[in-house]
From TrEMBL:
InterPro entries: Alpha/beta_knot_MTases (IPR029028), tRNA_m1G_MeTrfase_C_sf (IPR023148), tRNA_m1G_MeTrfase_TrmD (IPR002649), tRNA_m1G_MTases_N (IPR029026), tRNA_MeTrfase_TRMD/TRM10 (IPR016009). This is tRNA (guanine-N(1)-)-methyltransferase. CDD domains: TrmD-like. It comes from Epilithonimonas hispanica. S-adenosyl-L-methionine binds at G112, I132, G133, D134, Y135, V136, L137. One of its GO terms (biological process) is tRNA N1-guanine methylation. Homodimer. Residues 1-224 form the tRNA methyltransferase TRMD/TRM10-type domain. The gene is trmD. It catalyses: guanosine(37) in tRNA + S-adenosyl-L-methionine = N(1)-methylguanosine(37) in tRNA + S-adenosyl-L-homocysteine + H(+). It is an enzyme of class 2 (transferase). Belongs to the RNA methyltransferase TrmD family. It is found in: Cytoplasm. One of its GO terms (molecular function) is tRNA (guanine(37)-N1)-methyltransferase activity.
Length: 224
């Protein structure tokens, strides 16, 4: 998988890809992540990428020309399955979206900044718009890192235990059940006996029942 991330501040995103699972995925050649500074396609000697909105109003807007030039250049080099704009008014990211994107080959993530991007960029290029929650960030960079992490970890071979991703919260519209490890008893709190029984059928039933119980308590909307 190749992900190209377009940003005003690409340096803000470099650290998460240099550690842990994301680093491992790239070292194994399972994922490539390339950062593109939109100022490389800026206008004039002042490297302008934003301007005041037509019709008035507060804030600045990312201009169409630098964004169009950048995206068009990338599209001329390869076919992209999705060109994704990270924006608060996009579809809220969930596990279903992450699963779907994980089987794609080439993706572009466009990080919004300021008050957003010229609508014509969305009309010309954007195929999907994603939000990571109902709140506003300074820019789309942190959202792009979240989206990349949620997708890359699902690629075959990235996790040491590939079954792990299949049992994550939300994979079956359920939250995860309680989990325990050694010691068996700590400060008067004990591991449920069923988990020590060796009866794996009964354990699976218990885990499922606990997942349903927790989901009903905390996220009943997932069961609708």
């Amino acid at each position: 998988m190749r992900i190209d991330i377009i940003s005003v501040l690409p340096e803000l995103m470099e650290s998460p890809f240099k550690t842990s699972i994301l680093k491992r995925a790239m070292e194994k050649g399972l994922a490539e992540v390339h950062f593109h500074n939109i100022r490389d396609w800026s206008i004039g000697k002042h490297r302008q990428i934003d301007d005041e909105p037509y019709g008035g109003g507060a804030g600045m807007i990312m201009m169409i020309e630098p964004l169009d030039k950048c995206i068009s250049e990338l599209k001329s080099q390869r076919d992209y399955d999705e060109i994704i704009y990270l924006t608060p008014d996009g579809e809220t990211l969930n596990q279903r979206i992450a699963n779907t994107l994980s089987i794609k080959k080439n993706l572009i993530f466009l990080c919004g900044h300021y008050k957003g991007i010229d609508q014509r960029v969305r009309d010309l290029h954007i195929t999907k718009e994603i939000s990571i929650g109902d709140y506003v960030l300074t820019g789309g960079e942190l959202a792009a890192c979240v989206l990349a992490d949620s997708v890359i970890r699902l690629l075959p071979g990235v996790l040491n235990d590939e079954q792990s991703a299949l049992t994550d919260s939300f994979q079956d519209n359920l939250l995860s059940p309680p989990i325990y490890t050694r010691p068996e008893t700590y400060k008067g709190l004990s591991v449920p006996k069923i988990l020590l029984s060796g009866n794996f059928g009964a354990i699976e039933d218990w885990l499922h029942d606990e997942a349903v119980r927790i989901t009903k308590e905390r996220r009943p909307d997932l069961l609708e």
